[in-house]
Specification:
The chain is built from twelve helices and no strands. α3 crosses α11 and α9 runs antiparallel to α11.
């Protein structure tokens, strides 16, 4: 493609929001290295699931023994729809007799792995929002915030289980449960977007990305068995039993990417980082984005990091009214 044609196409996308906004999101996703951030989230996420399975089965064995109705509600809940692990919960709930020792071990492992997963998510969120390293929470505050988020996730899972159980008990309300589940997912992801970052955010800063990610999560959860099944089928000949873990890891990685896409939408929208240029020419929004990327490397209170540009016609300074530093 010639430079003149590229500039004409680029000018077209800059003039139309329906083209310019998603392209700006894609470009910002790549500049943040969001694929690597999603990989870190998936790495810790896979270690969080199996201790969680031990806790769930142990709690069920201790608390739900002799109450088949509550057991069936849990089996039919959204938890049982989780790819691979959901089937393990379904098959093991009535078979594992929970003990205090197994429950204690499971809770300890779940907290350790869960805190690691949420801290990886915190790092990803702060990176995407451009929060300088010096302004990110220390270890104590990060762990406290992780524990708060773990409790919130548990509350959302419990509410989802009760919602699914209610849907199964009433045929007339069942058609409304999918939108209700999507709304709950939007609320959960929006809460994570606000809590797991040092940036000062309001609901209007996160609602659009949370809506897209929440609806996508609902679809991904419904299609999880098919996605993981295809991955297992393509890997089982080489990896054998480990193909289950590989398939589940691929599903979690896809879910992490979905969450980060929603986050990128929030950042581009609230910081007004579009339209971007895909041609050699820099726009004001390109300059603002590159400065945000540089400033997040500030590590000391007295350190100032900025970006300047060699080309004399490049926008060298932002309009101060448009400056947006999330902290």
């Amino acid at each position: 493609m010639s430079k003149d044609l590229l500039r004409r196409v680029d000018a077209l996308q800059q003039q139309h929001r329906v083209l310019g906004f998603p392209l700006a999101v894609v470009k910002h996703y790549g500049e943040d290295g969001a694929g690597n951030l999603a990989a870190a989230m998936a790495h810790f996420g896979i270690f969080s699931l199996f201790p969680l399975l031990l806790v769930l089965t142990s709690l069920a064995g201790i608390l739900l023994r002799g109450d088949p109705d509550l057991q069936q509600t849990l089996l039919d809940s959204a938890l049982a729809q989780f790819p691979i692990v959901g089937h393990e919960i379904h098959d093991s709930l009535g078979a594992i007799g929970g003990t205090g020792l197994s429950l204690g071990i499971g809770i300890s492992l779940s907290l350790w792995a869960g805190i690691g997963g949420i801290r990886a998510t915190q790092t990803a969120f702060d990176t995407v929002w451009g929060v300088p390293v010096r302004d990110r929470p220390n270890a104590v505050r990060a762990i406290a915030r992780s524990l708060l988020m773990l409790v919130s996730i548990g509350a959302f899972l419990l509410a989802s289980a009760l919602l699914s159980g209610f849907a199964g008990s009433s045929f007339t309300t069942a058609p409304f449960m999918i939108p209700a589940s999507a709304a709950m997912n939007i609320l959960a992801i929006g809460t994570a977007y606000r809590v797991l970052t040092a940036a000062d955010l309001r609901w209007h800063d996160v609602i659009w990305g949370a809506s897209i990610a929440g609806i996508g999560w609902t679809i991904l959860l419904a299609a999880g068995g098919w996605i993981v099944g295809r991955r297992i089928a393509s890997s089982s000949d080489v990896y054998g039993g480990f193909a289950i873990v590989i398939g589940l890891l691929a599903w979690i990685y896809l879910a992490a990417q979905l969450v980060l896409v929603g986050l990128e939408i929030n950042v581009v929208r609230s910081a007004r980082l579009w339209p971007r240029s895909w041609a050699p020419d820099l726009t004001t929004h390109d300059a603002r984005t590159l400065r945000r990327l540089a400033r997040r490397e500030e590590r000391h209170p007295d350190e100032i990091v900025d970006a300047h540009f060699r080309r004399p016609d490049a926008p060298d300074r932002d309009d101060q009214a448009l400056e947006d530093r999330p902290t």
